[in-house]
Design goal:
With 329 residues, the chain is α/β, with parallel strands linked by helices. It is built from 16 helices and 10 strands. The strands form 2 sheets. The protein has a 5-stranded mixed sheet with strand order 2-1-3-10-4, sandwiched between helices. A 5-stranded mixed sheet has the order 7-6-8-5-9. Helix 11 packs across helix 16 and helix 12 packs across helix 13.
């Protein structure tokens, strides 16, 4: 009888913590197909973590994280996972009231070449380089990848291809492209040779930031409980993703990125090693984000006369804090 009472009490508490109905949020992911950073979101969807936390999440893919953020500003999307430098530019230059409530601090960008004769940073001058979009994440990353040899982005030819940069390199349409870690094994397998890495992000920028999940500040305030539940689901999904026992299942879910289960399984440990998905924190560290703001000011991404966004305006860390209290329950 006592055990039954405890069970009923637990059920009542769980019911009390769940909303009367699941409010719908529309979440935009970068890339068609989406980039690997989105895998945790799809794990949350496929493994039922959104449902568990009482939030109905529709996931949509956009050509780029920049386009996804613009949809948030337009009001057609509730939140997006977008490149941090792009968000810093949007807030600083245009004064849009976006706020970050979750982040991924560790970029995996690299500048790859299928032509061994184009192996040095200075070789990139005047060449066509595959990126996602003009002003998108890969284009912004390229600015930092070629900075060590004194090149600026207007000294190369940007070729916008969404997430199809690797495919264009395989087809012989391009010799150079800004790539993700998971692009490398695919290219090497199909090329039958090693890809030449001209420059990797970890070599040129030790303190940076990759992606932030953003919403309009007013909408975050209006639907705050749903955003908290969204992040709680992502926290649980991250824990599931990082557990090696779930590698096969996560690799299967990761096929949404266009990778085969085999390639996804081989690549997942590489992303775990660089701590792509934050565990035990919100991924919004002040030092990393302020470093992005400083870099964007130096590169001219923040226009002259514009005030760089302050860290306190850029983030809302209370959402993750409240979500952490829900996660795992």
């Amino acid at each position: 009888m006592r055990s039954m009472s405890r069970a009923l009490c637990g059920a009542a508490m769980a019911f009390a913590s769940a909303p009367a109905f699941a409010e719908k949020l529309t979440l935009a992911m970068p890339g068609v197909p989406p980039v690997f950073g989105s895998v945790v979101t799809y794990v949350a969807k496929e493994e039922g973590f959104f449902k568990k936390h009482g939030v109905d999440v529709e996931v949509r893919n956009f050509d780029s994280g920049a386009a996804a953020a613009q949809a948030v500003v337009a009001g057609s999307i509730d939140a997006s996972l977008s490149p941090t430098p792009v968000i810093v530019r949007m807030i600083s230059n245009a004064g849009v009231d976006l706020v970050s409530f979750y982040g991924m601090p560790n970029p995996d960008w690299l500048l790859g070449s299928v032509d061994p004769s184009l192996s040095k940073c200075q070789d990139v001058k005047g060449q066509g380089v595959g990126v996602d979009s003009i002003g998108g994440a890969r284009a912004v990353a390229l600015e930092q990848l070629i900075r060590p040899c004194g090149l600026k982005v207007d000294q190369v030819k940007l070729v916008p291809l969404s997430t199809n940069v690797g495919a264009a390199m395989l087809a012989g349409q391009l010799k150079l492209g800004v790539l993700h870690l998971d692009d490398v094994p695919v290219l090497e397998e199909q090329l039958g040779k090693k890809l030449t890495v001209v420059q990797s992000f970890k070599d040129v920028n030790q303190r940076s930031h990759y992606l932030v999940m953003v919403a309009l500040r007013d909408k975050l305030k209006e639907k705050r409980d749903s955003y908290v539940r969204l992040v709680a689901a992502l926290i649980d999904a991250t824990k599931f993703t990082l557990d090696s026992k779930n590698l096969d299942r996560v690799a299967q879910i990761a096929t949404v990125t266009g990778r085969t289960p085999k390639t996804a399984k081989e690549t997942l440990p590489l992303f775990v090693r660089i701590e792509l998905w934050p565990a035990g924190n919100d991924g919004l560290g002040k030092d990393n984000l302020e470093a992005v703001v400083a870099t964007e000011k130096e590169l001219g991404g923040i226009k002259p006369g514009k005030t760089p966004v302050a860290y306190e305006k850029l983030v809302d860390r209370t959402v993750w804090k409240d979500a952490k209290a829900l996660a795992g329950k």
